[in-house]
Design goal:
Length: 151
Amino acid sequence: MKKTKILMVCLGNICRSPLAEGILRQKLDPKRFSVHSAGTGGWHVGDPPDQRSIDIASQKGLDISNQKAQQFKLEFFDEFDLIYAMDQSNFNDLQSLARNSVDQEKLHLLLDALFPGEDADVPDPYYGGPSGFVNIYDLIDRACEVISSQL
Ligand code: 4NP
């Protein structure tokens, strides 16, 4: 059977979506699902996750240090079955790239799983301190728990 392919998307693909990739992957059966991530921006292509994301993941027993940032490409709409944006701005950027209704229907806001209809964002932690990373880990983990239980 073909695996369901899931893509987590944020702006830089170094803080939030690498955590989302690692967290959701850990909750799903690898024989049935594959989880990847990308950024709408290209500034960090090829970089490992931000050290603060690596650190909070490591404190939770998750190793995300081998990930490499990539920029979202149009063909990802063909490759992936489900695409989760970390915030409304990422969602709007992806929506403006969508070529048709099939692409559009693949797009979801991650925290809709946790707070349906509230349009809640995983806040961008890049310019903040380490506590922002504790907060986003918790939000992403809770949302991924709901998503994994529904898949
Ligand atoms: P991310 O955080 O979207 O969660 O990976 C950011 C990382 C880098 C930048 C912005 C947000 N940046 O402007 O370089």
